[in-house]
Amino acid sequence: MASYTTITLVKDAHTALLTFNRPDVLNALSTTVANEMLDALLGIGSDADTRVLILTGAGRSFIAGADISEMAAKDAHEARIYSELGHRCMNTLQDLPQPVIAAVNGFCLGGGLEVALACDIRIAAESAQFGLPETILGIIPGWGATQRAARLVGTAKTKEMIFTGARIKAAEALAMGLVNRVVPDGHLMDTVRGMAEQMCRQGQTALRNAKTVINRGIGLSLDKALRLEIDTFVDLFDTPDRREGMRAFLEKRKPDFTGA
User: Fold this and answer.
1) Is residue 125 part of a domain?
2) Coil, helix or strand for 234?
3) Domains: count for the chain
4) Quick one: 149 exposed, middle or buried, by C-beta within 10 A (0-12, 13-18, 19+)?
5) What angle do CA 189, 59, 20 make, to 5 degrees?
6) Residue 82: which H helix or E strand, with range?
7) By the 8 A CB rule, do 132 and 165 touch?
8) How much is the pLDDT for 1?
9) Per the CB 3.0–4.6 Å rule, which of 24, 145, 165, 233 could disulfide with 141?
């Protein structure tokens, strides 16, 4: 895999682990981080052997937000370029064919929460803190949080988080549906890796199609979304993985999926 300066990317069996690696600045997002992340995501998306992607942060933070020292010097034109880069990166993350799990350690603020929101699953350590404090800086979230958070936890909670800029603890994030699960700090990566391994055992064609149907269906009318589900369900009956999965079930053995 490629070598980067602000992130690390390693692969273990069928799981890739992308770590934001600027612990001296709490993994703050910069243009370089966004470009390196985008390059890594494009590579992962085209790698059929990678079945699950995990995102986490080095040190005591997932991502504490944007690199304000870089952002403060931008004019409106440069801010548009930065926001559009961020949106391309988050859209690429959201649209990866593979399931993506955010292993949220420590601070997950501003752009960090926007990264987590673009993932499929969010598992948080008990010490994790979440927030969208951009209004304290005189701006709003610029990498998708106004829309992804509202779709995940509702407009009222999203407005509260953005209007106040307040941080919330992991337990509250769980209660409002912002994260899927909260685990003791020392168990975070074991829990996430265990979930990733479980996903790797599923039929990969089915898994990728399920993600596509869910993501696309949210933006459709219920009638069209249900039709999409029917069509995808039917299409999967012509795949080798479907035949292998049902044959293995009837033969009372583990399936040997090929991703076809």
Assistant:
1) yes
2) helix
3) 2
4) buried
5) 80
6) helix 76-94
7) yes
8) 57
9) 145
pTM of this structure: 0.96
- CB-based contact 26:66 (threshold 8 Å): no
pLDDT at residue 179 tops 90 = yes
**One domain for residues 32 and 128:** yes
Same domain, 142 and 88: yes
| Catalytic residue status for 134 | yes
78 catalytic per annotation: no
- Would you say residue 260 lies in a domain? no
**Residues β-bridged to residue 109:** 131
CA 236 – CA 231 distance, rounded (Å): 9
Identified catalytic residue from 84, 134, 229, 251 = 134
Q: Please check whether residue 257 lies inside any domain of the structure.
A: no
If asked whether residues 189 and 103 sit together in one domain, one would say: yes
Instruction: Select from 136, 129, 17 the least CA-distant residue to 63.
Output: 129
What does the buried/exposed string (b/e) look like for 46-79 if buried means 16 or more CB atoms within 10 Å of the residue's CB? ebeebbbbbbbbbbebbbbbbbeebbeeeeeeee
The predicted-structure confidence for 86-128, as pLDDT tens digits, reads as follows: 999 999 999 999 999 999 999 999 999 999 999 999 999 999 9
In which domain, by residue range, is 221 found?
A: 204-250
Same domain for 104 and 188, yes or no, is: yes
Report the interhelical angle of 222-236 vs 204-218 (nearest 10°). 170
Residues 182 and 211 placed together within one structural domain of the fold: no
Q: Is 78 helix (H, G, I), strand (E, B) or coil?
A: helix
> In whole angstroms, how far apart are CA 199 and each of 45, 62, 120, 205, 239?
16, 23, 12, 12, 19
> Six-digit token pair at 64?
């504490």
Catalytic residue among 114, 160, 244, 251: 114
